[in-house]
Design goal:
Helix content is 47%, strand content 10%. It has 18 helices and 7 strands. Strands 3-2-1-4-5-7-6 form a 7-stranded mixed beta sheet, sandwiched between helices. Mean pLDDT is 87; it is low at 1-27 and 425-438.
Length: 438
């Protein structure tokens, strides 16, 4: 039965005996040192990745690197598609013009993690799950390793991942999810398979939320931004036994500036900067891509029209566009935006010329934005390593690497943390030492 949180004791109970997970399979990679190297290089190259060609017709770096600028603008459509879909080829090509891009790429490389022994359940276990999601969940499960603590699934949806891990490790599962419909659907599936999995409907970001997560194994696959960060914070605060996270959507929950956990970092990331880390996609269908391209080109056409009317070239933020407007003509689309901004449009507007201008700007934006794309992974890794160093400071052993190919999901960095055995002193032992006066 779906319940709401009252007190943490009512929700998650600690196991009767302290359980620990053994050593990780790979040694430490001195993550903190790498974080500071990334921090220095990203700060030094901010003029290359922070300006957005959509908002600036020619970012300042275009004047500093005219050869690269011209090479980007000269790319044909086939080359553009190749570099858009192949980050490694893009970095190699731009690295010939900017060695610092190649240096950052080398710092951002992570090993492919070695999967543990994993036996996939029968197909009916995954009924109703999209194929790509199944691939992601099974890849995640195959890299978790031994599970010896009760599982706490963070933002678990229908609980597919927790159910799979609980079945494999013979552990009870608690799935936390905001959507009551997903909770009910997950409960039904758990009952169907006879698994011990409880669901709790809860807003994990509500202020003052109390959770007893000590001695649990936390898992989160693509929990957005502040959601995966809140799980990491609870791990270090309450001494969670184990943690496996695949982060996603880093901007979620950040109002203005990201607040790092690691001391001594110089890079300051805005909400817009955080969005750059997740702009790579591999799941969009052709219809979605066509609609996205039209929206961008038409927006650029409207921005030019607005600038001509008000006589100001400075970029002004634009609210999200209603998708049904993209089914209108270009002139009707612009009229909708103009009405929303209380802007009067000239009767003699040359709509064909303006739409052509928008598509030309779109072509330039897509090519010039390739440079920014080279910095997506370094920024993402900087964000992940900020969590890693905080976990290491709280005596966790870390394994970090990719758990699947980019074609399955570009958000393929998996962070695994295990509390070191020698740091885990039971509360009864602490009381014994204190009371004995030692």
């Amino acid at each position: 039965m779906t319940t709401r949180f009252q007190k943490d004791e009512q929700m998650i109970t600690s196991p009767s005996q302290t359980t620990r997970i053994g050593a990780m399979t790979t040694p430490s990679k001195n993550w903190q040192q790498r974080l500071h190297q990334l921090d220095q290089q990203l700060s030094a190259t901010a003029e290359l990745w922070r300006p957005q060609p959509f908002k600036q017709q020619r970012p300042a770096w275009c004047h500093s690197y005219p050869q690269l600028t011209q090479a980007l603008l000269d790319l044909d459509d086939q080359q553009l598609q190749r570099f858009s879909r192949n980050p490694d080829a893009l970095v190699e090509w731009i690295g010939h013009y900017l060695p610092q891009v190649a240096q950052l790429d080398a710092l951002s490389r992570l090993p492919k993690r070695t999967p543990s022994e994993y036996l996939s359940p029968e197909n009916r276990f995954f009924n109703g799950m999209p194929g790509r999601k199944r691939t992601q969940i099974e890849a995640f499960a195959s890299h978790v390793g031994s599970v010896t603590s009760p599982i706490l699934e963070w933002c678990g949806g229908k609980g597919h991942l927790g159910r799979l891990l609980g079945m494999a490790g013979d552990q009870p599962v608690t799935t936390l999810e905001l959507n009551p419909e997903l909770c009910r659907a997950g409960e039904q599936q758990a009952q169907r398979f006879g698994l011990y999995q409880s669901f709790t409907e809860v807003d994990l970001l509500q202020p003052g939320l109390e959770l007893n997560v000590t001695d649990h194994h936390g898992v989160a696959l693509h929990a957005c931004g502040e959601l995966h960060r809140s799980l990491q914070r609870r791990a270090v605060t309450h001494g969670m036994a184990a943690l496996d996270i695949v982060p996603c959507c880093y901007a979620f929950g950040v109002e203005q500036q990201y607040q790092p956990r690691t001391q001594g970092l110089s890079l300051q990331l805005s909400r817009d900067d955080l969005r750059l880390a997740v702009t790579e996609t591999v799941t969009a269908g052709q219809a979605e891509v066509t609609s996205r391209d039209r929206e961008m080109a038409w927006k650029l056409g409207f921005v030019e029209l607005r600038n001509r009317i008000i006589g100001n070239q400075a970029y002004r933020t634009m609210k999200p566009v209603q998708k049904q407007w993209l089914k209108l003509s270009f002139s009707q689309f612009c009229q909708q935006l103009a009405d929303r901004e209380a802007l009067s449009l000239p009767a003699d507007t040359d709509w064909a010329e303006l739409e052509a201008f928008g598509w030309q700007r779109f072509s330039e934006v897509m090519r010039l934005s390739l440079l920014r794309n080279c910095f997506r992974r370094p920024i993402e890794l900087w964000l992940v390593l900020d969590l890693v160093t905080d976990l290491e400071a709280h005596d966790y052993q870390i394994e970090l690497g990719t758990f699947c190919d980019r074609a399955v999901t570009p958000r393929n960095i998996m962070l695994s943390a295990r509390k070191r055995v020698n740091s885990m002193v039971s509360s009864s032992e602490i009381h014994r030492v204190v009371n004995s006066g030692i």
